[in-house]
């Protein structure tokens, strides 16, 4: 077993023992804003609970909102523990892209390396029209975080082009037309396929209108891969179940 495989297996086992469901490894060579001392990344993902996702079509999404908050805190703990483990037990450098560091725009770098980018570089998914990472297993239902490191690891094969084909389901349900017809590929800027400002403004208004009980998230639920994760075929099936 070579060093890259050994390291990858060891840290994956550790992260999964702490609650990570998905772990991906990537080289960040050629990616903008990556500190030279951290050429590789480890992506950690946890799927959103199915019952929480189903509340997106109800008047009260507080279960979904709280699930998202809880997962964010859990992921934060996992990546910080992963950083410590890599430094103390494996003797390599590591930097968890924690919530606090991203909020402070750590060195002007960490917050500019989206978890979605480390996901596509790991080969765990691609970016949908809705600008979310789409996993073949979970659709858009993964919450993500990242550790940067100089540790030699067995990296995945990057996905550079959308696998959404002609599907426009997420675009069709967007209430503010923030999703463009253009499909993602790794050469495009986000603005070419997604209007983040429109999306964020709508979410902000929804949070104010519902006193923090509603976000939106309809685009993620509309994805056929998310529906497959939920075990439903159409939105109508889900609404009928609710």
Helices, strands, pairings?
Blueprint: H1 3-17, E1 22-27, E2 40-47, H2 50-54, H3 62-89, E3 94-96, H4 99-103, H5 115-122, E4 126-127, E5 133-134, E6 142-149, H6 169-173, H7 196-209, H8 218-222, H9 224-230, H10 235-241
Antiparallel strand pairs: 1-2, 2-6, 3-6, 4-5
List keywords for this structure.
globular, 41% helix, alpha+beta, single chain, two-stranded antiparallel sheet, four-stranded antiparallel sheet, 242 residues, 10 helices
Radius of gyration over C-alpha positions, nearest whole angstrom: 18 Å
The arrangement of helices and strands along the chain is HEEHHEHHEEEHHHHH
**How far apart are the first and last residues' alpha carbons, in Å?**
50 Å
**Total number of strands:** 6
Q: Helical percent range?
A: 40-55%
Structural classification = alpha+beta
Unreliably modeled segments: 106-111
Mean model confidence by pLDDT: 90
Largest sheet: 4 strands, antiparallel
Strand content: 5-15%
Strand order of the largest sheet: 1-2-6-3
Global morphology:
globular
Number of continuous helical runs: 10
Describe this structure in words.
- The chain is of the alpha+beta class and 242 residues long.
- It is 41% helix and 12% strand.
- It has ten helices and six strands.
- It has helices at residues 3-17, 50-54, 62-89, 99-103, 115-122, 169-173, 196-209, 218-222, 224-230, 235-241; strands at residues 22-27, 40-47, 94-96, 126-127, 133-134, 142-149.
- A four-stranded antiparallel beta sheet has the order 1-2-6-3, sandwiched between helices. A two-stranded antiparallel ribbon has the order 4-5.
- Strand 4 and strand 5 form a beta hairpin.
- It is globular and about 50 Å long.
- Mean pLDDT is 90; it is low at 106-111.
């Amino acid at each position: 077993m070579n060093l890259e495989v050994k390291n990858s297996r060891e840290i994956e086992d550790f992260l999964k023992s702490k609650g990570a469901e998905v772990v991906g490894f990537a080289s960040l060579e050629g990616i903008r804003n990556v500190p030279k001392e951290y050429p590789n990344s480890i992506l950690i993902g946890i799927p959103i609970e199915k019952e929480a996702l189903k509340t997106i079509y109800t008047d009260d999404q507080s279960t979904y909102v709280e699930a998202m908050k809880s997962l964010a805190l859990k992921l934060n703990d996992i990546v910080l523990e992963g950083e410590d483990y890599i430094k103390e037990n494996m003797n390599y450098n590591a930097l968890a892209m924690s919530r606090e560091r991203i909020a402070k725009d750590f060195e002007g770098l960490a917050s500019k390396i989206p978890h979605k980018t480390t996901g596509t570089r790991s080969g765990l998914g691609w970016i949908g029209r809705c600008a979310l990472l789409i996993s073949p297993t979970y659709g858009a239902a993964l919450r993500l975080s990242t550790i940067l490191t100089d540790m030699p690891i067995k990296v995945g094969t990057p996905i550079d082009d959308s696998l959404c084909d002609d599907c426009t389901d997420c675009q069709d349900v967007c209430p503010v037309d923030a999703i463009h017809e253009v499909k993602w590929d790794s050469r495009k800027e986000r603005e070419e396929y997604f209007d983040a400002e429109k999306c964020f403004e709508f979410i902000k208004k929804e949070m104010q209108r519902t006193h923090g009980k509603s976000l939106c998230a309809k685009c993620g639920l509309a994805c056929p891969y998310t529906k497959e994760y939920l075990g439903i075929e159409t939105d109508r099936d889900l609404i009928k179940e609710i």
